[in-house]
Specification:
With about 180 residues, this protein is α/β, with parallel strands linked by helices. About 35% of the residues lie in helices and about 20% in strands. Helix 1 links the parallel strand 1 and strand 2.
C-alpha cells in the first residue's frame, strides 16, 4: 500500500509524525510531499527530505493523508490539493484527515451524508453527521478530532490499509511482550 501525505509550513507535528512513524513501522510505503524539500511545523520543527508534490503522480497512491494544523489554511486554498482530494474521494480511495483537515474535505462537499469528526470548534454544517469521537471511520474516509487522537488515527489507517492482523503485528512490535 502506498500513502501520500501532504504537508505545508505550519502542519501540526504530532498529527503528522506519529502517523508517519507508525505507518513506516507497519511497512507502509509512505511518501511525504510538499512544495519544498524542508517543511517547518507549527512548533518550529523541521522535516527534511520531503518529496516535491509537483513531481509525483498522485494517482499512483492508495491513500491520501492530511495532517491538521495552521497549514490547513493553505490546503483550503490550494486548487491542486483540491484536485487530489477529489480524485481520492471520487475513486473511493482511502482518505485520512485529522483535526482541521477534515473541514477541507467538508468544504469540498465530501462529508455530505458521511459520518466524520474534526477539531470540535471547526465543525460546520457539512451535510453529514458529526460524531464526537477521537476517530471515525466511514467507508474509505478516516477522520480524527485532534492532536490527542494522532496515534489512534494512525492505527485506524493501518487497519484500513493492511487489516486487523497487520495492526495486531504493529501492536506486538510496539508493545513488546
Amino acid at each position: 500500500m502506498k500513502v501520500l501525505a501532504i504537508i505545508f509550513d505550519g502542519f501540526e507535528e504530532e498529527e503528522a509524525v506519529a502517523p508517519f512513524a507508525l505507518l513506516r513501522r507497519a511497512k507502509v510505503d509512505l511518501t511525504i510531499a510538499s512544495d519544498k524539500e524542508t517543511v517547518i511545523g507549527n512548533h518550529n520543527i523541521a522535516l527534511t527530505n520531503i518529496s516535491l508534490l509537483k513531481n509525483l503522480n498522485y494517482k499512483d497512491f492508495d491513500c491520501l493523508l492530511l495532517p491538521g494544523g495552521p497549514h490547513y489554511k493553505r490546503l483550503l486554498i490550494d486548487e491542486y490539493v483540491h484536485e487530489i482530494i477529489r480524485y481520492f474521494m471520487d475513486n473511493n480511495k482511502v482518505l485520512a484527515a485529522i483535526c482541521a483537515a477534515p473541514t477541507i474535505v467538508g468544504k469540498l462537499g465530501y462529508l455530505k451524508n458521511r459520518k466524520y469528526t474534526c477539531f470540535t470548534s471547526m465543525d460546520q454544517d457539512f451535510g453529514g453527521t458529526y460524531i464526537d469521537e477521537k476517530v471515525v471511520v466511514d467507508g474509505n474516509l478516516i477522520t480524527a478530532r485532534s492532536v490527542a487522537s494522532a496515534i489512534l488515527f494512525a492505527y485506524a489507517i493501518v487497519e484500513k490499509l493492511l487489516g486487523k492482523e497487520a495492526l495486531n503485528a504493529l501492536f506486538e512490535h510496539i508493545y513488546e511482550k
